Amino acid sequence: METLDTTAMTGRPAKLIIDGVSKRFISSRAVVQALDNVSLTIADGEFVCLVGPSGCGKSTLLDIIAGLTKPDSGHVLADGKTVEGPGRERLVMFQESALFPWLDAFGNVMFGLKLRPDLTNAQRKEIAHHFLSLVGLSKFEHAQVHELSGGMKQRVALARALAPDPQVLLMDEPFGALDAMTRDQLYDDIQQIWMESRKTIVFVTHNVREAVCLGDRVVLMSPSPGRIQQIFDIPLPRPRDINSPELAGYSSKIAATLKGTLTEAFSE
Amino acid sequence: MKRLASALLFFALLIALWELAVRTGRWSVVLLPSPIFVGEYIWGAMLDGTLEEATWVTLKRLLVGYAAGVLIGLPLGLLTSTSQIFEDTLGSLALGFQTLPSVCWVPLALVWFGQTEGAMLFVVIMGTVWSVIIATDHGARNIPPIYARAARTMGSEGFHKWTRVILPASLPFLVSGMKQGWAFAWRSLMAAEIYVTILTGFGLGHLLHYGRELNAMDQVIGIMIVIVAIGLLVDRLLFSPWERFLHRRWGTNVRGT
Known about the structure:
The structure holds 2 protein chains of 2 kinds. By secondary structure, chain A is an alpha/beta fold. Chain A has 7 helices and 10 strands. A 6-stranded mixed sheet of chain A has the order 6-7-8-3-9-10, sandwiched between helices. In chain A, helix 2 (105-114) crosses helix 3, helix 3 (121-134) packs across helix 4 (150-162) and helix 6 (208-214) packs across helix 7. Chain B has helices at residues 2-23, 35-47, 50-82, 84-99, 106-113, 117-141, 145-153, 158-195, 204-213, 217-250. Helices cover 81% and strands 0% of the residues of chain B. The longest helix of chain B is centred in the last third of the chain and has 38 residues, at 158-195. Chain A binds chain B through residues 66-68, 86-88, 90-92, 94, 96, 98, 100-102, 111-112, 115-116, 144-147, 160, 164, and chain B through 144, 146-147, 149-156, 160, 164-165, 168-169, 171, 248-252.
């Protein structure tokens, strides 16, 4: 496979350029420097995982890439254009289920498709059927959201995010609330889908193993202020098994670095 | 079936206790009439048509006033939920007036509208509208923000967002707001009918009032039972199916299935 060596930016054009992004949150009690001058370039078709302890600003960074939050300074370029707001070329898959309970599984996948005026209704339905079968839920198209298990809900959410054919898929701890077995299955699925579709994926997690399993690169962030601490290349062949020993080697290295930062942060 | 049977048994037991209390002879039958007399009154009033007429007059006022209250209250509640200025102004006004018992509107209504249907409607609308505003506002605020965020990333903005996301997402809250509005409308109307006598129609409240004037306790208690029964019936026919549907869709606590 030509994708074996996916070390950073091997001649591929940049899809996302995060340039000097800072963000502060001011509450009545404290000022939190969520992000402090963060810069990162993500190549087209790259799978990048942002990992770090809570408060390191990884979800804030994802929101800024999505255009849901505005940075105080710095900017994000997507395909060379400054991100001014949310757009369907950068879709987000959220942590908790953000599926709409008033629509069934099919209706949820159709929601984003209906906002694409360039498609006919027949095309939209065909695309929705396709993506629901891609995530293995053909039989559950007309299930109500609450009838689906946690894993199935996130599969529908994945289909909903993929269906409008975004350039970039932003995933905010999408498997955080699932049990381990369901998660393992989804790691296989998401890798399969990524290898076939070649989307650029930015994946936020606090689970180091998960990050190593999925990412071409793992970006380790440190808290207060939120900064990029170190970037690790993961040149393992795909599909990767989260339980493989090679993978464990990488994740223990990253976990050790992370632990070092935390000790430092608390001793201050 | 089992639930119906237990409910019936409960009410039968209640009536039996009541009859027993009457038979002990400790209370005057003028103060505590036997359930048999109350039943006879209701039956008689149904036969000669007074009960149906009064019920019809009352329900007509209730429906018109309630519909107006909801139509005014829903949009205002959505407005206060989205705008800081409206929340601080209209929102506080609604909160203040909601704490005012609706019977307090009666004197004002009498002076402004006289003994007319207008006074009745005014009291019902004033009783309904504030609680609908507050319930709607509360509901729209409680929509999980993640729905709006998800919709935004998919390109849903403005009118589309309001009609396809905010409105359906707040449906469960809107229904409980409307239900609360109904309860308030019902209370206000009864207060108004007891205090205001108008010649364009005698409602259930009037029958209750005249029952007291005539010292006819069988009439007073009979009308009270009718009022309770109508309240229950409306809840079962109008709101329960809605709530069941929403609970089924949302997968929230499934009541009464």
